[in-house]
Amino acid sequence: MLRPLSIAFLSAFALQGCMFSPGQNLDTGRLLQDDSAESSRVELVQITPKLLAVEAATQPQGAVPVKLTDYRPESYRIGAGDLLYITVWDHPELTSPAGQQQQTDANGRLVRPDGTLFYPYIGTVRVGGRTIEDVRATISEALSAYVEEPQVDIAILRFASQRVVLNGAFVKAGQQPITTTPLTLMEAIGTAEVDSLNADLAGLTLTRDGEVFQLNLDALNTAEGTDLYNLSLKDGDRIYLPYNDRKKVYLMGEVNAPRALTFKTREMNLADALGSVGGLNQTTSNGKAVYVIRGVENLETERAKVFQLDANSPTAFILARQFQLRPQDVVYVGPAGVTRWNRLISQLVPSAGIIGTGSTVQHNLNNN
């Protein structure tokens, strides 16, 4: 009877052993040797100084497109919606027809949608598309028939005809007017205030005349000789700063705090990513099994890459700091061999109890 019971309990032990996995492990030997269709879609690459040099050489350099830097704003041209304040010295009845006690806006003259305005004695004056100096000269000449040597000055109280629009990860997104003083990109961004916690600084786009320009704010801010601060905006420009909620890397495996990390700047290196999750678990991790898994758009036509770092090497920290991660990369740290064995043993404890119970039952049966 002992033999059948032993076989039964050993069968239960083996069955339970088949039902658990002692821990995930990326088998790089299989990637190198297996000729299956699945393995042929993956390329294993060691992170070495040579690889980092090649990666650095292929990285796009931050620069403002020439089409943007070549733009030079002209003198402001009046347009529909602008509110003008026309002063005729020594003639308050022309300067402030609503009365000097009224607010300045009440004495302003609004440019109509057709680009014209009405002025006493002169009648309808076409001002749309013209500079302030041009309109001043026209009004002075027309008033000279009624006023001796008229001294005319023009100021714009409200700018409404030319504007740029900022959308996305800004605290104050919306329209900003272009005035007589040229508006630069950085001034517009400063006014809108970047949402620093949620913005993707590397993904800014500027759309001008139907063409989209990519501007990496993080890279351009640190680049020497950049023209970013001299980039003037043009009427109709649209600026979009994306959120970083889709720009993540994922830390998995034997790290102290596995989670997804969000990019806030143009890049994140492997050392920063591992440091953000408390580093490798010193008890359970395998220093030679640090992998960066990078997918592709189409596995049918491209091979995904798995980059491997030997963290036990003295140069590992230097290599990790220079290896730049990309959005959607998965950083996986494999378990040490003893870790897999310890997990195996811990999951066998219930089975050991079953065998012990079986031995007690058999002892009692023999005594009886």
Automatic annotation (TrEMBL):
- InterPro entries per the record? Poly_export, Poly_export_N, SLBB_dom, Wza_C
Where does this polypeptide localize?
Answer: Cell outer membrane
| Domain SLBB: start-end pairs | 162-240, 247-333
| Gene Ontology biological process terms in this record | monoatomic ion transport
Q: Name one GO cellular component term.
A: pore complex
Query: Which GO molecular function annotation, any one, does this entry have?
Result: porin activity
Q: Which UniProt keywords apply?
A: Cell outer membrane, Ion transport, Lipoprotein, Membrane, Palmitate, Polysaccharide transport, Porin, Signal, Sugar transport, Transmembrane, Transmembrane beta strand, Transport
Q: Is Transmembrane given among the entry's keywords?
A: yes
Q: Where is each Outer-membrane lipoprotein Wza C-terminal domain found?
A: 336-362
Q: Which residues form a coiled coil?
A: none
A Pfam family reported for this protein in Swiss-Prot or TrEMBL: SLBB_2
Q: Which residues form the Polysaccharide export protein N-terminal domain?
A: 73-156
User: According to Swiss-Prot or TrEMBL, what is its membrane topology?
Assistant: Multi-pass membrane protein
Signal sequence range: none
- Family per UniProt? Belongs to the BexD/CtrA/VexA family.
Q: What is this protein called?
A: Capsular biosynthesis protein
Q: What is the native source organism of this protein?
A: Pseudomonas nicosulfuronedens
The record lists the lineage as: Bacteria, Pseudomonadati, Pseudomonadota, Gammaproteobacteria, Pseudomonadales
